[in-house]
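Handout, section 3.2

Students often ask what a structure token actually looks like in practice. Rather than define it abstractly, here is a full record for Multidrug ABC transporter ATP-binding protein. The first block is the sequence as you would receive it.
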Amino acid sequence: MKPDHESSWTPPADAAEQPRQVRRILRLFRPYRGRLTVVGLLVGAASLVSVATPFLLKEILDVAIPEGRTGLLSLLALGMILGAVLTSVFGVLQTLISTTVGQRVMHDLRTAVYGRLQRMSLAFFTRTRTGEVQSRIANDIGGMQATVTSTATSLVSNATSVIATIVAMLALDWRLTVVSLLLLPVFVWISRRVGNERKKITTERQKQMAAMAATVTESLSVSGILLGRTMGRSGSLTRSFADESERLVDLEVRSNMAGRWRMAVITIVMAALPAVIYWSAGLTLQLGGPGVSIGTIVAFVSLQQGLFRPAVSLLSTGVQIQTSLALFQRIFEYLDLPVDITERENPVRLDRIKGEVRFEGVEFRYDGKGGPVLDGIDITVPAGGSLAVVGPTGAGKSTLGYLVPRLYDVTGGRVTLDGVDVRDLDFDTLARAVGVVSQETYLFHASVADNLRFAKPDATDAELVAAAKAAQIHDHIAALPDGYDTVVGERGHRFSGGEKQRLAIARTILRDPPVLILDEATSALDTRTEAAVQQAVDALMADRTTITIAHRLSTVRGADQIVVLDSGKLAEQGTHEELLERDGRYAALVRRDARLTPTR
């Protein structure tokens, strides 16, 4: 399997970036300000009601019971019950709204990351594992669910409760309040230490989850299973996965146990505080200080216990937020990926496309670095004409073809369509203008009809049949038990290589682009299948501008012009007959091809 690695671009993670990152997270919630305001009001109301309850208890113990005032006792008891009901109702409404907002934020993040990746050039995906991309969208965003759905609300709710409770405690007795809050700064310091520790572990854990997801994606695909079984590596792959999983177990345990003992100490101390309060009140009374009524002590302890839950929760929330910053950082890395293929601010839209393609002084380097893959390429393909590109492996043939639909962008010179630089065209025009049929056919795990309609969602059944007939695949589809409703299987593995190619050709016929790029569309097929696919290709090429990247030279002899690439440079150019007469590199390739091609 491929070694684990991230995409080549990773921004620096610096502590100074945290405030900017937090502001960026808060901006995610900006579209939902109205709903969050309602949540804030509900939180405030719930906090006020919960704080009022101990004061009602104080009145019961200090006034209603000692003075035998039954009416007041009933009213105060009813007030405590009503407070519990209101707190519960406010809590349910608060949870409903905050969860909805959180899920909408997650939806926005998922959509933003997916949309960003859709805009990346082909080069990004050639250097990034599929499982790594999937892990960012599934595991990283999924791991933030608690933060964006409940943590933010919990932070506001607990902070409000803590402030309201402290104010109420001060109103009851400021001395007991000071005793209760002496250790709070120590607790805050401990929680920050725990949060930083968990953040580091979370970053490692998410990378490990991405590595494991990539291993699963690669080894449990149809191709991966075939390779593993035929190479006798199933046991080795299982052991490799077990090692990956073992590392994840260690990180999960470390993540859950990080700071657990320190937080346990905080819990013990907070739980012991009521005893300290009783002791302080009794000591004050014995030393001749001002007395504290039983009702005040009970109400204060009730408030102090009420402070315990949100205070501990607030500290835990702080830890969780710091942990989630690691996940947000990984998501923002993808959102900040530089998009090197973009649409102009005012792009050109072509309503009628003739299909003339020109390569003018074209140069291309991967990532703009290293030696040129293409250098000084000048070719003109008239509208409706055909160009064949041949040459040894690594000569830059596929790259040349991929410059037309802007799967890559030139680093020098330009590629034009009907005289307009393809970089100036809007994406819709380019997608309508250029179709690509590659050697590696990709089919979705869906029905034949759905795969064909991916090119034209509103295509009628009659159009599907016409395209399939032109691609020489209709009879095979019609013979299937479910016909066009047959599910093709993962990556189309229910169909042979030639059948998948013809389905891809039918899909492109349905799209009906005026310019066609054929990237070694028949090179991996046997000669009999190639003949059937070639008929479909010939039907597809009719009346279109065609650029054929060829491996088997027998498929390009009828091209209007043939160019030979060698080390990224244009070595020869002409028709099949002209190039044979020159007895140069093309003639040598033809002779080699004749030796390697079996007789039919």
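Discussion prompt for tutorial groups: Strands lie at 357-364, 374-381, 386-390, 412-417, 420-421, 434-438, 515-519, 545-549, 561-566, 569-574. How would you have guessed this from the sequence alone?
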